[in-house]
């Protein structure tokens, strides 16, 4: 599967989207990498649990880091929801 977001694409993020709710399946979210907190990642929510979200890359063949590598991402590491994509 090809990546949904490629270099040069601008995303608009709502940092308050999950203030009173948790991410839904298939949402595209911005999160801090669980093992490298200074790195922000953009991933799709595959499913959620009571502890957090299982995040997957749309382009699994590229070997991108996602929950298959680092596990469930705690909700507090999810910093926003991608609400729009602007293609140049």
Give the CATH level 1 class: Mainly Beta
Oligomer: single chain
Question: In terms of structural class, how would the helical and strand content be classed?
Answer: mainly beta
Strands in their spatial order, largest beta sheet: 1-6-2-3-4-5
Low-confidence regions: none
Proper CATH architecture: Ribbon
Integer count of domains:
1
CATH level-four homologous superfamily name: Umud Fragment, subunit A
Which geometry do the CA atoms define?
A: globular
The number of distinct helices, counting runs of at least 4 residues, comes to 1
The overall average pLDDT, rounded, is 91
Give the number of DSSP strands: 6
CATH topology: Umud Fragment, subunit A
DSSP strand (E) fraction? 35-45%
Largest sheet: 6 strands, antiparallel
Structural account:
- It is built from 1 helix and 6 strands.
- The chain is mostly beta strands and 88 residues long.
- β3 and β4 form a beta hairpin.
- A 6-stranded antiparallel β-sheet has the order 1-6-2-3-4-5.
- It has one helix spanning 67-70; strands at residues 10-14, 28-32, 40-48, 52-56, 73-74, 78-86.
- 5% of the residues lie in helices and 40% in strands.
- The chain has one domain (10-86): Umud Fragment, subunit A (Ribbon), CATH 2.10.109.
Give the SSE layout.
Layout: E1 10-14, E2 28-32, E3 40-48, E4 52-56, H1 67-70, E5 73-74, E6 78-86
Antiparallel strand pairs: 1-6, 2-3, 2-6, 3-4, 4-5
């Amino acid at each position: 599967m090809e990546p949904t977001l490629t270099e040069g694409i601008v995303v608009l993020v709502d940092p308050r989207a999950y203030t009173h709710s948790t991410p839904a399946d298939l949402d595209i979210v911005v999160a801090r990498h669980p093992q490298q907190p200074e790195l922000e990642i953009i991933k799709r929510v595959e499913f959620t649990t009571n502890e957090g979200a299982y995040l997957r890359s749309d382009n699994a063949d590229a070997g991108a880091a996602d929950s298959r590598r680092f596990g469930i991402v705690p909700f507090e590491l999810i910093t926003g929801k991608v609400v729009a994509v602007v293609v140049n």
